[in-house]
Automatic annotation (TrEMBL):
Pathway: Isoprenoid biosynthesis; isopentenyl diphosphate biosynthesis via DXP pathway; isopentenyl diphosphate from 1-deoxy-D-xylulose 5-phosphate: step 3/6. Pfam families: GHMP_kinases_C, GHMP_kinases_N. It comes from Uncultured Desulfatiglans sp. This is 4-diphosphocytidyl-2-C-methyl-D-erythritol kinase. Belongs to the GHMP kinase family. IspE subfamily. It comes from the Bacteria. It is an enzyme of class 2 (transferase).
Length: 299
């Protein structure tokens, strides 16, 4: 069981003049509705995205040798090759800034991989932000956002992570003021799910009036988060992985106000009013044998 609380700023601690130390948060989709499909194959979405206090950690330092050297560690370590989003983000930044510096990057993975939590996208965003700070901001915020969009639909969200309504392919962001401070129990059942795989299997009538529904629901007082919890991809992933449905039942049985799969899954989360309630629920889920249980607060 784990989870950490940090500030919103991902570049939290500078490691000196030749390096930066960064924390990259996970995200949850508290709502994800598909409203259309574009000619390029991408789906148009309306989603509510919230950053939460589960973090990957990056250390980026200058090195004398040219090129990018990436090392991956942690519970969910990835390949450090050129297909890694951190590597791709670093290469894109150096190219855009016209730099030929050598970089040594260490990535500690605490966010489960291919889990619906946006860990890779967050790592890419943190890399862009950290390098821009390390090299004394050669790129404007607008240029950083352009690079973020080129790396993936969720990457722009993590440039300034805060509760948002996301539209387009997830890259058009509208911050939500006054989002309630609640706690979440995240449970990853231990398998990886490809976002592309989930969308290819999506067969739903496309939603209409979704944005208006979200805005109307958010104006209600008191706000009932359970009225917002819906994910069009959940049925796709749950059909192949019955653990999704079992986890939702387990979280509700442990006292969650509501439970939902995040993104394309397979991570399932429950919403709780207090840290104590969330911790008790997490203990119960651990006793039931579920792996990878995290208690986190929304950011």
């Amino acid at each position: 069981m784990g989870g950490e609380e940090r500030e919103k700023d991902q570049t939290l601690h500078e490691a000196g003049g030749n390096g930066v130390h960064l924390f990259a948060p996970a995200k949850l989709n508290l709502r994800l509705k598909v409203i259309g499909q574009r000619p390029d194959g991408y789906h148009e979405l309306v989603s509510i995205m919230v950053p939460v206090g589960l973090f990957d950690e990056l250390d980026i330092r200058l090195q004398s040798a040219q090129g990018i050297r990436l090392v991956c560690k942690g519970s969910f370590a990835l390949s450090p090759g050129e297909d890694n989003l951190v590597y791709r983000a670093a290469a894109a930044f150096l190219d855009a800034a016209g730099l030929t510096a050598g970089l040594a990057i260490e990535l500690i993975k605490r966010i489960p991989v291919a889990a619906g939590l946006g860990g890779g996208s967050s790592d890419a965003a943190a890399t862009l932000l950290g390098l821009n700070r390390l090299f004394h901001r050669p790129l404007s915020q607008g240029r950083i956002l352009t690079l973020a969009r080129s790396l993936g639909a969720d990457v722009p969200f993590f440039i300034d992570p805060k509760p948002c309504i996301a539209r387009g392919i997830g890259d058009l962001l509208e911050p939500l003021d006054g989002w309630p401070q609640v706690w979440y129990v995240l449970v990853n059942p231990g398998m990886a799910v490809s976002t592309a795989w989930a969308f290819r299997r999506l067969k739903l009538e496309l939603t209409t009036g979704e944005y208006a529904y979200i805005v109307k629901t958010l104006k209600k007082r008191p706000l009932e988060l359970s009225e917002l919890l819906e994910n069009d991809l959940e049925a796709v992933t749950a059909a192949h992985y019955p653990a999704i449905g079992k986890l939702k039942e387990a979280l509700r049985g442990a006292g969650a106000l509501g439970a939902l799969m995040s993104g394309s899954g397979p991570t399932v989360f429950g919403v709780f009013e207090s840290e104590r309630q969330a911790s008790l629920a997490a203990d119960r889920l651990l006793d039931e044998g579920w792996p990878h249980v995290f208690v986190v607060r929304g950011m």
